[in-house]
């Protein structure tokens, strides 16, 4: 990466894009540019690295730039053009890195007087360039809508026209940088060093030679004609009619035999005629349909059997999902409804493996389309135009048999063995990298701040419950090479003995040195201690679980007990997920308000009961979801985010008073151009940390006063880590018959409830 990054002050100019630029005039002083180049918050990339990338984000990833680092490029202006566009004047700067790369810089709107003086030979720097696609003249471009992102450094010395002359006798119009290229362009240099081609000597034949050659050709042709034999063509004898009829009769009998083998025939008055009946083909088609239905049921049953909580059969699950997708168009709709494949697909949406979740979503949409649901994007319904009949080749290609299933299941063991081998190789590479890493880097990646909680000394043979032994300051680590009772500052972790080691155990870190001092450490950022609200709520919830308080009661009674428990333990806000929490189904992130009525009308009765009960309290309700409305904001049909929540309340006749809907998907807010719109200094955190912290900022509450209700275990673990109360329910295990069916509490396969 050293060849694609960096700019610096050098002699009478600067070095950018690997070329020394001699300055004729400084607009920005030499000292100011030196301080800019020395600032680590801005990195100057080469123009070639930016142009060779798909977009700016790919260039940043290729150069391994952090989210808090700005990227800039330096280039030389070779031509300036201004024209009037729809939104105002547009100024185009043709720029070059004085090597082989040329690009366009499009500036929209009015410019300052300083930028208005930019001309040929000006050196500019563009901060966080927005790279556009290729234009009609095959140039990449940079779009500049804020002139504050452009810095005029100065003017370059030595940019001039080539002194060569073209073949037409005119002067060459190519620009050259004489301090780097000389006074001639590369085309004239190439022409100067190319060896001249030898001229072909033309030989004019004499008239005597031409006459001799013509006479010789005529003589050869006469000899060839004399050597040819004369052929006599005679009329053929008339054919025998009897022989001809016998030959045709033999061919006719052969054709009849072929026809008999292909289709059924009948003998009428000694003449065999084909039987034109449709009963056998219909019977054959019915048998084929039954076989396909059986094969489809077999595949669905196999899928049900291999889905386990420990996700050990991921390869088989993925293969069966792809196999079932081939069966859908050849199976009766009644068979599909009875199989329960739609419920299986919905349960796989939150699978930890992205490939399985995507394949299940694809299969669900294929089934919905086949079941004659009107297509999205305003396409024509299938029940009006019917399904297109496939040709024979496509039918044979798409037709799946039980042999495919057997092949997938037989090959799964080989795939698992290969994956295990790859995992072992990856682990070996990571261990080798850790061995090469020095101790300072190792501790820097794992521990940021350490506090000694308790110590044990083998010499004294006792534990010390004090935060530190007598004479040892707070925030220090015990044990040095010289004195095991000495102290070592936390800033000098790399000075620890080489045999020292640490192990992460849940919320604690156990550290051991060669002097056998065992120190229990708590690094910053590993966990956040629970406040009194969360601890008291967890204790009350465990008591309810042990006493089976919520069993055998109505949703209204369960909601009353649940909300009362929240009031007693200081919970002020309920942050509920939307998919598979507020509603019993999963929308997939967006839906069609006309065709996906079943999804929008699936708000659970327990959620309605809780929403009605909190109206008599000071507890407020918010929705936190990954269904980002910015994804389909301008789509003519689909809705998501807050609009989808509002439609769900209407279709389900739910009167919940929702304070605010936080609809953000972290992957959509990773680039600087996106997360800066929200006022963030870096990419949006994963899980729902941003959603919960926004509730704290908007309503002036603490994280310990919020409870998150979610069906994703990773969202719940992250919320617990930052200090919020959480309730979660896994899809494995039975549901309680009360409000926790809506609250998504955790149930292990035996039906035992646990509070995370």
From TrEMBL:
Q: Which Pfam families match?
A: zf-primase (PF09329)
Q: Which residues form the Zinc finger Mcm10/DnaG-type domain?
A: 154-199
GO BP, one example?
DNA replication initiation
Q: Which InterPro entries match?
A: HAD-like_sf (IPR036412), HAD_sf (IPR023214), Mcm10 (IPR040184), NA-bd_OB-fold (IPR012340), Znf_Mcm10/DnaG (IPR015408)
Q: Please name the GO terms that the record assigns under molecular function.
A: DNA replication origin binding; single-stranded DNA binding
Looking at the UniProt entry, the stretches that span the membrane are none
An annotated GO cellular component: nuclear replication fork
Q: What SUPFAM superfamilies does the entry give?
A: HAD-like
Q: Which family does it belong to?
A: Belongs to the MCM10 family.
Q: What is this protein called?
A: Rhoptry ROP9
């Amino acid at each position: 990466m050293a060849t694609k990054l960096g700019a610096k002050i050098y002699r009478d100019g600067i070095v950018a894009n690997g070329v020394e630029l001699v300055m004729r005039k400084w607009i920005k002083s030499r000292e100011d540019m030196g301080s800019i180049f020395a600032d680590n918050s801005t990195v100057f990339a080469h123009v070639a690295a930016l142009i060779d990338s798909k977009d700016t984000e790919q260039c940043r990833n290729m150069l391994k730039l952090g989210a808090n680092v700005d990227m800039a490029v330096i280039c030389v202006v070779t031509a300036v053009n201004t024209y009037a566009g729809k939104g105002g004047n547009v100024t185009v700067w043709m720029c070059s890195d004085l090597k082989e790369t040329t690009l366009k810089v499009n500036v929209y709107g009015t410019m300052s007087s300083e930028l208005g003086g930019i001309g040929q030979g000006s050196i500019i720097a563009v901060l966080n360039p927005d790279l556009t696609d290729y234009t009609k003249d095959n140039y990449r471009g940079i779009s500049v809508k804020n002139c504050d992102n452009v810095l005029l450094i100065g003017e370059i010395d030595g940019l001039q026209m080539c002194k060569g002359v073209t073949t037409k006798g005119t002067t060459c119009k190519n620009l050259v940088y004489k301090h780097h290229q000389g006074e001639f362009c590369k085309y004239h240099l190439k022409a100067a060093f190319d060896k001249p081609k030898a001229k072909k000597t033309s030989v004019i034949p004499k008239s005597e030679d031409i006459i001799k050659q013509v006479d010789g050709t005529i003589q050869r042709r006469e000899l060839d004609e004399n050597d040819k034999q004369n052929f006599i063509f005679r009329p053929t004898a008339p054919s025998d009619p009897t022989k001809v009829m016998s030959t045709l009769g033999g061919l006719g009998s052969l054709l009849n035999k072929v026809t008999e083998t292909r289709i059924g025939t009948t003998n009428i008055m000694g003449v065999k005629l084909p039987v034109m009946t449709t009963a056998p083909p219909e019977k054959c088609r019915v048998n084929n349909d039954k076989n396909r239905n059986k094969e489809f049921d077999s595949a669905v049953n196999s899928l049900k059997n291999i889905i386990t909580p420990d996700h050990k059969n991921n390869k088989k699950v993925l293969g069966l999902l792809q196999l079932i997708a081939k069966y859908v168009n050849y199976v009766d709709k009644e068979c599909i409804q009875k199989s329960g494949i739609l419920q299986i697909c919905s349960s796989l949406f939150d699978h930890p493996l992205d490939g399985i979740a995507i394949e299940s979503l694809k299969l669900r949409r294929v089934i919905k389309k086949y079941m004659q649901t009107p297509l999205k994007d305003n396409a024509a319904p299938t029940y009006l135009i019917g399904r297109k009949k496939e040709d024979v080749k496509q039918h044979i290609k798409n037709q799946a048999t039980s042999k495919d299933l057997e092949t997938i299941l037989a090959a799964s063991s080989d795939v698992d063995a290969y994956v295990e081998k790859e995992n072992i190789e990856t682990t070996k590479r990571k261990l080798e990298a850790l061995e090469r890493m020095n101790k300072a880097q190792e501790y820097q990646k794992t521990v940021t701040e350490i506090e000694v909680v308790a110590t044990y000394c083998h010499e004294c043979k006792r534990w010390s419950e004090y935060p530190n032994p007598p004479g040892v300051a707070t925030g220090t680590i015990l044990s040095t090479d010289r004195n095991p009772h000495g102290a070592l500052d936390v800033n000098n972790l790399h000075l620890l003995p080489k045999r020292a080691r640490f192990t992460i155990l849940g919320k604690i870190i156990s550290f051991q040195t060669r002097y056998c001092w065992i120190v229990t450490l708590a690094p910053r950022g590993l966990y956040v201690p629970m406040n009194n609200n969360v601890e008291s709520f967890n204790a009350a919830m465990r008591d309810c679980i042990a006493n089976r308080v919520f069993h055998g009661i109505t949703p209204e009674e369960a909601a009353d007990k649940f909300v009362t428990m929240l009031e007693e333990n200081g919970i002020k806000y309920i942050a509920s997920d939307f998919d598979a929490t507020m509603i019993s189904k999963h929308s997939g992130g967006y839906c069609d308000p006309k065709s996906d009525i079943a999804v929008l009308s699936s708000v659970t009765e327990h959620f309605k009961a809780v929403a009605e009960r909190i109206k008599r309290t000071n507890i407020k309700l918010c929705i936190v979801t990954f269904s980002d409305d910015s994804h389909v904001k301008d789509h003519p049909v689909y809705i998501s985010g807050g609009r989808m929540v509002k439609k769900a309340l209407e279709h389900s006749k739910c009167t919940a008073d929702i304070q605010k809907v936080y609809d953000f998907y972290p992957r959509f807010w990773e680039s600087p151009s996106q997360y800066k719109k929200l006022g963030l200094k870096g990419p949006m955190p994963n899980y729902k940390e941003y959603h919960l912290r926004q509730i704290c900022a908007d309503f002036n509450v603490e994280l310990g006063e919020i409870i998150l209700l979610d069906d994703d275990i990773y969202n719940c673990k992250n919320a617990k880590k930052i200090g919020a109360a959480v309730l979660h329910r896994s899809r494995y295990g039975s549901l309680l018959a009360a409000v926790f069916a809506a609250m998504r509490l955790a149930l292990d396969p035996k039906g035992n409830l646990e509070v995370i």
